[in-house]
């Protein structure tokens, strides 16, 4: 007999939507705090954005980055980062921007002297460049544009994949995740560089993937349970996808925790951003994205969405056919020539409908039209 570990029961009935107002207030408070921290404290921009010195070093054999970092740690030059560049025999050294040009030149000289005296192995200096503040400002602008463009394209995708109310809910959840991630970096003063911009874009994609899974189940249930209350339907949809969401998040977190422990200093901040993003993205997919639909109202079909806002998914007809505009427009159309031809075939169906209760002319005509269309298709297949 095989035993299987289950983190969650196969069927859960957790009333997520019951807590939506308190969780909305909690999420809104965190988002506001993040914005305040961003403007009050600011971000700790790295060399990519603030500018600095780039030195590309080549080695004859695989570079010993740990030994190089140890050799440069006592120079008191501010932030110094090292990483492999292209291959394991090339290392890119980044040094924080100094006070002036003379200080930059002195820093370059000090780095070369320290490596020459403490690093075992022959080194060759491929290039030495200085990144000015103007380049850093352009990179900040490019990073901001990349994040805004990613969120906008996600909105368009969800709009076409589902409908506008779903897109609104997904974008609110994405903006929530991005704001909380940036707020976390502002609060703890972690270095914010191009790698973190890449992490935020990955978080946007991960969160959107989780949200699409939930929304896909919502759309399926809207078609399946036509008379279920919206709050119950959303609770059912979130519970249906809960096991998948939790398992995906936990397996992703296992890999990220391993990177945090064994990945080293170079990718530490990147890994922290990803871990935080997975946690926040899972939270928003379960508690925010679905709850938003309670207020923007996903479509229930052209027969019931009087406002015309999000009317693509559900097909429940009104109880009173006289109020159904679609059926009334259909009843006003000229009769199909095949109606007289197939009238005798439909007499039994009309008699059965009459015995079941009164129906409007529009309802009878719509039903008969569907029956005739199906009969013609069966004849063609023969």
Question: What is this structure's SSE topology?
Answer:
Blueprint: H1 20-40, E1 44-45, H2 47-50, E2 52-59, H3 65-72, E3 80-85, E4 87-96, H4 101-118, E5 123-131, H5 133-161, H6 164-188, E6 191-192, H7 194-224, H8 230-262, H9 268-296, H10 325-331, H11 337-341, H12 343-356, H13 361-381
Helix pairs in contact: 1-6, 3-4, 5-6, 5-7, 6-7, 6-9, 7-8, 7-9, 8-9, 10-13, 12-13
Number of domains: 2
Oligomer: single chain
Question: What structural class do you assign from the helix and strand content?
Answer: alpha+beta
CATH class wording of the largest domain = Mainly Alpha
Order of helices and strands: HEHEHEEHEHHEHHHHHHH
User: End-to-end distance, in Å?
Assistant: 52 Å
Features:
4-stranded antiparallel beta sheet, Multidrug efflux transporter AcrB transmembrane fold, alpha+beta, two-stranded parallel sheet, Alpha-Beta Plaits, 382 residues
Give a brief rundown of this model.
This protein is α+β, with helices and mostly antiparallel strands and 382 residues long.
What report would you give on this structure?
The chain is α+β, with helices and mostly antiparallel strands. It has two domains: 16-43 and 136-296, Up-down Bundle (Multidrug efflux transporter AcrB transmembrane fold); 52-131, Alpha-Beta Plaits (2-Layer Sandwich), CATH 3.30.70.3400. It contains 13 helices and six strands. It has helices at 20-40, 47-50, 65-72, 101-118, 133-161, 164-188, 194-224, 230-262, 268-296, 325-331, 337-341, 343-356, 361-381, and strands at 44-45, 52-59, 80-85, 87-96, 123-131, 191-192. The strands form two sheets. It has a four-stranded antiparallel sheet with strand order 3-4-2-5. A two-stranded parallel sheet has the order 1-6. Helix 8 runs antiparallel to helix 9 (268-296). The model is unreliable at 301-321, 339-348 and 352-357 (pLDDT under 50).
